[in-house]
Structure formats: C-alpha cells, structure tokens
C-alpha cells in the first residue's frame, strides 16, 4: 500500500478555498532522503491573505453557540477516523515513525478533538459577590481572536489537534503554519476539517518560508496569540517579536527530562517504561527521557536490562512491518546526535550499544541512527546539558536523594521528569523538589487531553491540554453592573 501521490497536497487553505502557487517546496522522505511531495512556497503575502480571512470570519464564528462549534469538531474527528489508515501511512512516510506509532497518533488526534468539542461547552463564566447593594459583578470568557498556530515535526498530527481543537472550541479563528518537514499531514487533516462545511476563513493553513510566515504572524496586531511548540531558541525569538503588540503566547519548548531510578524501584517495570518513552519516535519527543539517573546499588542491573532490550530493537523504514525505530526527521538532528555521542565517548562515557549511523542495505540514504546506550556518563558531557532529541540513552550514577534532586534541577529547562520508587514519602519529596511542569511517578506516560501539559523555566509558558488549554485561547471580561 502506498496511497501517496507526489502533488496530492500541494496547496494552502485560505478562506475556505485551496490556493495554489507557482513556486513550491519539496517535502523529503527521511527514510531515503528523496522528495515525496510538494507544498506551496508561501511567505508574507500568503500569510497576510490568511490573516485577512481569519479576521473577517472571527466575529461570526466567535458568536456561534458552543454546541454548534462543537458539531464541526465532532464531525472532523469522525472523518479523520474513517481515513485513519491512509493518514497513518502518510504520517509514517513523511515523519519516519513506525506505522503502528502513526496509527496511534492519528487515533490520539481524534481523542483531542473530541475532548475539546465537549470541553468548549463548559467554558463557564463567574458571578462574584458584590461589595454594595444593587451591584452585580460578573466575569465573562470570550475568544481571544485570530491565533497563529505553529506545531512541530515530531508529532505533526496530534499537536495540530491540541492547538486547533481548543482554538476552535473557544471561538477563535486561526492560521496554521506546519513544520517545514511535515506539512503534508497537516494539510491532509485540514482537508477533513474543510469537508465539514466549517465557515470560510475560520481555518487557514499556509506553508513556505518559516521565518517570513512567523514574522508576519507576530507583526500583525490582528493576530492576538501565538501557540508554538518547538525549540527554546525559536520560542525566544517569537517572544521578542510578540512583545511589540503585547501578543499572548503559549510556548511548549525544549526539555532535559531526567528519570531517577531508586534502589527500591521495580526494575523490570522501570526498564519497560524507560524503553517505551526513550525510544518512542526515535527519541524525538519533547518530554522524552534525556538522562537516566540510576542509584549506584542498581546501576549495573539497570544497564544490563536496558542493553538487552536495546539490542533487540529493529531499525527500519516506518511503513515496513516490524519496524520499531524509524529514521530521524532531519539530517541536522542526525548530525547533532552523532556529535553529542562522540563528545561523550571522548570524555570517558562507555559505549554499551549502538553509537553509529545505520547504513544497512536499503537504509543507507536515510537518516537512521542506531539505538544507543551510554554508561559512565558525567555532568561535563554536552548531552547532559542539551536536549538530545534522538535514540540515545545516557546512564548516570547517584548515591543519595538530595544529590540527585540537585542535579536534576541544575538545568535551565523544566519540562518533565520521571521517578521510580515505592517509598511514598520520597514520592512527595520529589514532587515538592523537582522544578518541572510535568512529573510521572512509576511510569512515563504524560499525554492526556484532560491534563495540563507545559514547562517551567526555559521550557515554556502556558499549558496545552485540560480546561487550562482551552482558557489559553480566551480572555476574561469583568463587568460591574449597577442596577438603578
């Protein structure tokens, strides 16, 4: 099965219509380095047209009753589910992840959409006790306006959904700028949204020169908010640009997530959970484990168990049966991982498994890196300071709780952390002490539509998911009414 034709999605969506441009950009298949499709090479003009359409559509869309907005979202989810296999194949080919993971992401996309379709009906206001007779104090929640949405390349289906769905449910209109590496799945998902008959201009998608599109979204005062998931470096640029118009921001940025395995942990369960998190999507997960802190008394056991499982991982093309590790999304990511591993080994890390590019027959032209395990990792190595964002598991040793807590917090990032222990008191000490926005104990799963996900410090501002994620797209209007 290969349901992908080269020019199937070579258009933007603006004001309810497909827009074709003479100039286009190739979309590269990371499994072979070859073009698999094209999208319009848009810039300021195309983005301006999309903003114009979204601004024109906003008054009517924001005034539509919430249950009517919900109906569009629910139909969107049904259409995606009906096309799940084709969309999963496209996602796997374009992004590189194994087909089974892609199927799960497409299903997860619909879970987010359905959840916000319902949550949008519950954006309740508030009545505040008044200070004087004859007065009524009220708080209303209103859609913030036109929003610019910028998802990343690692989960280009699910993160489109967790931005678009709350924006629409809140009553916002939007301009979506997909990641340069993965625009096809975003356009394919928007095709299904447009097929619901959603009013023209409510939903718009533009592709092209990232810097030009982002600058245009930031500069236009009609765009009242930017929702971005990606690197801390780009997030800081968007913050500076947004300052000129005091634009609202939701930023989900980089991380340096530690997992701490205490001596009383169930090692079998810890290893299985670490494997599921660390090597999902070839390690390209924002809240993915970056550093494994193993207590000195169980480090050797942990390393042995991890090594056995890592050696058995199958690297291959995502759409091939049995593949567990696909290619990295971009050659620059591959270069970065190779550099970080080389630096660690040169500084004394022990290479237990992997540590090289995969150039087997049929994979030699893709961006493949072998699942890697490093032992004897120390704090002077670059991969302890930077987000690896690849299939590399570094193991560090610690001796006591206070020490490892301080080491986990010694970073500008604060997105996620993971702890394995049976000690209830220790659990709460780690909850209190870890400087992160998201924490899992005795597990590594954090993604749920009903939960607020986001970082502290340089890992972001605001939250996606939960009722908090809906409120990110709403303004509060306080009214003091005196009855005469």
TrEMBL record:
Enzyme Commission code: 1.2.1.16
Stated name of the protein: Succinate-semialdehyde dehydrogenase
Active-site residues, as the UniProt record annotates them: 252
Domain of life: Bacteria
MF GO annotations: succinate-semialdehyde dehydrogenase [NAD(P)+] activity
Record InterPro entries: Ald_DH/histidinol_DH, Ald_DH_C, Ald_DH_CS_CYS, Ald_DH_CS_GLU, Ald_DH_N, Aldehyde_DH_dom, Aldehyde_DH_Superfamily
Ranges for domain Aldehyde dehydrogenase: 23-479
PANTHER family cross-referenced by the UniProt entry: SUCCINATE-SEMIALDEHYDE DEHYDROGENASE, MITOCHONDRIAL
Pfam short name (any one): Aldedh
Organism of this sequence: Brevibacillus choshinensis
Keywords: Oxidoreductase
Family of the protein in this entry: Belongs to the aldehyde dehydrogenase family.
């Amino acid at each position: 099965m290969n349901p992908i034709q080269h020019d199937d999605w070579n258009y933007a969506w603006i004001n309810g219509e497909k827009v074709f441009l003479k100039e286009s950009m190739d979309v590269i298949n990371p499994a072979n380095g070859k073009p698999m499709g094209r999208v319009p090479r848009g810039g300021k003009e195309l983005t301006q047209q999309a903003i114009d359409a979204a601004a024109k559509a906003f008054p009517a869309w924001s005034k539509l009753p919430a249950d009517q907005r919900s109906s569009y979202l629910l139909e969107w989810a049904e259409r995606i589910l009906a096309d799940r296999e084709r969309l999963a194949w496209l996602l796997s080919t374009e992004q590189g992840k194994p087909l089974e993971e892609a199927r799960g992401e497409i299903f997860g996309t619909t879970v987010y959409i359905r959840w916000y379709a319902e949550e949008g009906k519950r954006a309740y206001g508030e009545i505040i006790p008044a200070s004087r007779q004859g007065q009524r104090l009220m708080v209303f929640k209103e859609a913030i306006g036109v929003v610019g949405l910028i998802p990343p390349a690692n989960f280009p289906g699910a993160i489109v959904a967790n931005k678009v769905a709350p924006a629409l449910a809140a009553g916002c209109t939007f301009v979506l700028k997909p990641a340069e590496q993965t625009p096809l799945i975003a356009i394919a998902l928007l095709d299904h949204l447009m097929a619901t008959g959603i009013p023209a201009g409510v939903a718009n998608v533009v592709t092209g020169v990232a810097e030009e599109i982002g600058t245009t979204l930031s500069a236009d005062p009609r765009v009242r908010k930017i929702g971005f998931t990606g690197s801390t470096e780009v997030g800081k640029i968007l913050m500076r640009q947004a300052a000129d118009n005091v634009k609202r921001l939701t930023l989900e940025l980089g991380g340096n997530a530690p997992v701490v395995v205490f001596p009383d942990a169930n090692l079998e369960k810890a290893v299985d959970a670490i494997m599921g998190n660390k090597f999902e999507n070839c390690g390209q997960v924002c809240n993915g484990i970056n550093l494994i802190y193993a207590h000195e008394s169980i480090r050797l056991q942990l390393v042995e168990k991890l090594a056995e499982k890592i050696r058995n991982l199958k690297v291959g093309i995502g759409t091939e049966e049995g593949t567990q590790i696909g290619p990295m999304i971009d050659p620059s990511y591959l270069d970065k991982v190779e550099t970080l591993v080389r630096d660690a080994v040169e500084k004394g890390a022990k290479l237990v498994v992997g540590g090289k590019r995969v150039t087997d027959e049929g994979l030699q032209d893709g961006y493949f890196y072998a699942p890697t395990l490093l032992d004897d990792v120390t704090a002077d190595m670059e991969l302890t300071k930077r987000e690896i964002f690849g299939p590399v598991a570094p193991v560090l040793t610690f001796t006591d709780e206070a020490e490892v807590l301080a080491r986990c917090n010694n970073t500008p990032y604060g997105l996620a952390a993971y702890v394995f222990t049976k000690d209830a008191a220790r659990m709460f000490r780690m909850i209190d002490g870890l400087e992160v926005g998201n924490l899992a104990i005795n597990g590594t799963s954090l993604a749920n539509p009903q939960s607020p996900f986001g970082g502290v410090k340089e890992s972001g501002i605001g939250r996606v998911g939960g009722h908090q994620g809906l409120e990110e797209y709403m303004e509060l209007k306080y009214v003091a009414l005196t009855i005469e």
